[in-house]
Design goal:
Blueprint: E1 25-29, E2 32-36, H1 59-95, H2 107-110, E3 123-128, H3 133-157, E4 164-168, H4 170-176, H5 181-186, E5 194-198, H6 202-215, E6 220-224, H7 230-243, E7 247-250, E8 263-270, E9 286-294, E10 304-310, E11 315-318, H8 330-336
Parallel strand pairs: 3-7, 3-8, 4-5, 4-6, 6-7
Antiparallel strand pairs: 1-2, 8-9, 9-10, 10-11
Length: about 325
């Protein structure tokens, strides 16, 4: 074997002597001499100036460094923030006052929601009390009554937003069917004011609702879904806020309630009162309405009120038998007991 090819004769294979403390030494690799910095704590090794970050020597220096970082981040994000703020200003100009013109009309139940009543830039969930068809119909009637009051408020404010986006999923179409134009006329609503969307999937309904809310060109959006998750509900709430457009979500009675809505209502049908001129004829339609959740003014108790809907005045009022007291539902009484 050739002596020159022996691995022990290579310079790189030879053990290196430990450097003396506080000194530098040269190491030869293949005939090239390179300087090696000492590892002594008294002489720190060199670091690249591009990657080095000087530690602040005092709290004042730390504050100055943080302010520099904040200014740099703000310079990067400022264009995006200004763009979003400009879009929000345009939507707010279209919408006008958000909460001044939308309520149920019954002072007893409007007081439960605080001074602003129904937030006209948020999401509100309507749920039937049970899975019966009558409860679904009652929730639908409650949504149409709120839509009527919303359009009336927009007309009084001169906002010129006559359109209502009504989106349904295949499941809800099987449960409740489509809206009946003569029935809409009973509520004082014109079918030409509606934009109907029947999605093939619930994801299509969610997409249509979000796009409609962000457009800022609607008086109201209504979505009928069997259920909704937390993330989609949160996205719709943010879209309603950005577009200054309210959203009514009609969900199933057995589905989990959403925690991303401003209010949540439980609706059930109630027996109508007597007709004022004919005791044998039915009087005004009544609904048992319970405010389960209110973000601005949480209700103290889960209580239901019997509300009457007046087609002539287009407003709710508390039934005469319930005007001086609150009707608690049977489940609430059992929980209290």
């Amino acid at each position: 074997m050739d002596k020159a090819a022996h691995p022990l004769d290579l310079p790189s294979a030879l053990p290196r002597p430990a450097p003396n403390e506080g000194s530098d030494e040269s190491v030869s690799l293949s005939g090239e001499t390179r300087s090696v910095a000492s590892l002594s704590p008294r002489v720190p090794p060199r670091r690249s100036s591009a990657l080095s970050v000087a530690a602040p020597a005092s709290p004042a220096g730390a504050r100055e460094t943080l302010e520099t970082l904040r200014r740099s981040i703000l310079a990067i994000e400022r264009p995006k923030l200004e763009m979003r703020q400009g879009i929000g200003d345009v939507h707010a100009a279209r919408a006008g006052p958000r909460t001044a013109a939308w309520s149920l009309g019954a002072p007893e139940i409007d007081a439960l929601m605080g001074a602003n009543a129904l937030d006209a830039a948020a999401c509100h969930e309507l749920k039937p009390q049970s899975a019966k068809a009558a409860s679904h119909a009652a929730a639908l009637a409650f949504a149409l009554a709120l839509a009527k009051r919303r359009l009336d408020g927009a007309a009084r404010a001169g906002r010129g937003l006559p359109r209502i986006l009504w989106c349904t999923s295949p499941r809800t179409m099987l449960d409740t069917g489509a809206l009946y134009p003569p029935g809409l006329a009973r509520f004082g609503l014109d079918a030409s004011s509606f934009l109907f969307i029947d999605g093939r999937r619930e994801d299509d309904v969610l997409w249509a609702l979000e796009e409609g809310l962000r457009s800022g060109s609607l008086a109201l959006a209504v979505g009928a879904l069997s259920s909704i998750g937390l993330t989609p509900a949160r996205r719709l709430s943010l879209a309603a806020r950005d577009g200054a457009t309210p959203l009514l979500l009609l969900t199933g009675a057995r589905s989990a309630p959403s925690a991303a809505t401003a209010t949540r209502w439980r609706i059930d049908p109630a027996a109508s009162g007597a007709h004022p001129f004919d005791p044998r004829a039915p009087g005004l339609p009544r609904l048992a309405v319970r405010l389960e959740r209110c973000r601005s003014a949480p209700p103290a108790t889960e209580a239901a009120m019997i509300l009457e809907w007046s087609h002539e005045a287009s407003r709710f009022c508390v039934a005469a038998a319930m005007a001086d007291r609150t009707f608690e539902t049977a489940p609430a009484r059992r929980r209290a007991g």
